[in-house]
Amino acid sequence: MMSESQISPQGPLGKGLTCPRCGGVISIPEGQTIVRCPYCDLRSIVRGERGVRRYQVSIRASQAQAIQALNSFFGNFAVAFDARAKSKVSEVFLAYIPFWSFWSRALGWAFGQKEVGSGDHKRYEAREVKIAQELVWTGAACDVGEFGVQHIQLTNQPLEPFNGEALHASGMVFEPVGSSSDAHEAAEKDFQHRLRDAASLDRLAQLFIRFINKRFGLVYYPLWVIRYLYRGRAFQVVVDGFSGKVLYGKAPGNVLYRAAMLVGGMALGAFLAVDVPTFLLMSSSNSHNNDNLFFFLIAVLIAGVGMMAFAYRTFRYGENYEFGGAKFDLAQFGAGGAGDVFRMAMKAVDAVEKGQMR
User: Fold this and answer.
1) Could you tell me if 202 and 240 lie in one domain?
2) Enclosing domain of residue 60
3) Cα separation of 164 and 173, whole Å?
4) Could you tell me if 206 and 192 are in contact, meaning their C-beta atoms sit under 8 angstroms apart?
5) In a shared domain, residues 201 and 239
6) How would DSSP label each residue in 146-212?
7) How many structural domains comprise the chain?
8) Model pLDDT for residues 69-113, shown as the tens digit of each residue
9) Whole-model pTM?
């Protein structure tokens, strides 16, 4: 009974195993080794293949949909305004990239302290947090520097058994070159980090976690690779072959956007770093809580300096816009860049404050 046609690690059943007596299709509950054929009542033992299980995701997005995603990508305000009109597609091909994939369910408890109150009434209360979470980790199993996609989101994509001949007939297939043990280690570290964040404790004392239903495999994922020319310069965009969304891409930057970010970012950064502290110092002569004011001034100063540094970086390196990948996405500044800088500043100040309180 080895003729698997569709397996979903996210679902409770594996379908497509055929009965050796009557040829009927049998559904197998997850983890069950003995199954009964609903047609001829034959009982069979299910055995998995040795080594790492290989799966593939079928392509859902057509080449036309990938080109449409490229045109939508050109509409980003950080991309040159004439990119859609002046760009010419030079090459489009389908690539199947292998990704190490790790599924598990985490159960456990986190013990620590949560900060409550504010000002002179701030204190830490003991907390116990129950953890029960489904976890999925993926990582590229080959060198994807050219494509820029290090991870994929495996959510509702149905996984099918690997069919090398079919994949080679439809596109370019890359083989894994990394170590599965390194992938295991990276997945476990990522799980531990996510569970610590999920506990939401300011002071974590102990974390007891047990991983159950662990599954590990290699998933060949379809990616549309589109290469195009803009004013004699070559760029590339990678589109998800299942959802049709852009995962990674490079494009010529928008000069007006860069200038606006420089002027606006410098002005806002100077306001936070100079005007706000000056106003607070002038109006705090009668304040009795100078310690909290001091730390708040440091936070505002760091946020202002960070804003100006971000604005300069956007202007200096914005000639080529890069979406996705490991680099910072400049186009998301308007949605959350300033808030992220300020939250980082507040965390740094909080760390300094805790160090002085000790």
Assistant:
1) yes
2) 56-252
3) 8
4) no
5) yes
6) TT-------SSPPEEE--HHHHHHHSEEPPP-S-HHHHHHHHHHHHHHHHHHHHT-SEEEEEEEEEE
7) 3
8) 999 999 888 888 899 999 999 999 999 999 999 999 999 999 999
9) 0.66
